[in-house]
Amino acid sequence: MTEVQEKNLVICISGPGEDRPFSTMMMSSNPDLHLLHGGQCFPMFLYETEDSQ
């Protein structure tokens, strides 16, 4: 596994129709996929790799 050098933030929100109140969370690492019980996560930045040709 290679270490990622770029800094990024992810915003996680709870999913619609959940039996818990709406909540959000922002973090700088990859969260558990079930962090907010079926919610969604949105990165601040998207990175593309360069083709080395």
The biggest sheet, with number of strands, parallel, antiparallel or mixed sense and barrel status, is: 3 strands, antiparallel
Report the order of strands and helices.
Answer: EEE
Shape: elongated
Helix content: under 10%
- Overall mean pLDDT score? 76
Strand content: 15-25%
Oligomer: single chain
Unreliable stretches, pLDDT < 50, 5 or more residues? none
Rg, Cα atoms, Å: 14 Å
H/I helix tally: 0
Based on DSSP secondary structure assignment, what is the total number of beta strands? 3
Structural class: mainly beta
Span from first to last CA? 23 Å
Q: Can you list the strand order of the major beta sheet?
A: 2-1-3
Notes on the protein architecture:
With about 55 residues, the protein is an all-beta fold. Helices cover about 0% and strands about 25% of the residues. Strands 2-1-3 form a 3-stranded antiparallel β-sheet, with no helix packed on it. The chain is elongated and about 50 Å long.
